[in-house]
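2024-03-11 09:14:02 INFO queue: dequeued item N-acetyltransferase domain-containing protein, len=154
2024-03-11 09:14:02 INFO validating residues
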Amino acid sequence: MDIVIKTADSKDWQLIQKLNNQVFINDKENDDDLDMDWPSSEKGVSYYKKLANGKYGKCFIAYLGKIPVGYAALAIKDFGYRKSKYVEIENIGVNPEYRSQGIGQKLIDSTIKWAKEQKATKLYVSAYWKNKRAINFYKKNGFYESGLELDKKI
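2024-03-11 09:14:37 INFO prediction written
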């Protein structure tokens, strides 16, 4: 079966919510501060609706046949102090049952195409330090380390 990447539309917000919740479940081991209720919260639902209808950024959904198996949520990122125009991959995920089948690669390819249409010259993504699988995936796709996020409990 072929992998097809489609642009989300307003009726897809619950599908994006479900796919993003899988990312939350995967990331809870990397972030003890992650609010596991956020995907179903009022703020979460509002985010998914804006993302799905294109008012916030862009969202791609990957389908294997008729099965939604992954997604990428994108937004223009304004650093202010940097010269390049950036598109941020705010979140991206592939259902664990369908990983290592080229789905993430197709989502990255669609991301690059959309970013170029926005006249962006760089992509930005943040990954958890402990999430070596994600870091390796991004590096395999040409991303490089450009900074380090640090937290301090007080």
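2024-03-11 09:14:37 INFO annotate: Residues 3-140 form a domain with the Aminopeptidase fold (CATH 3.40.630.30).
2024-03-11 09:14:38 INFO item closed
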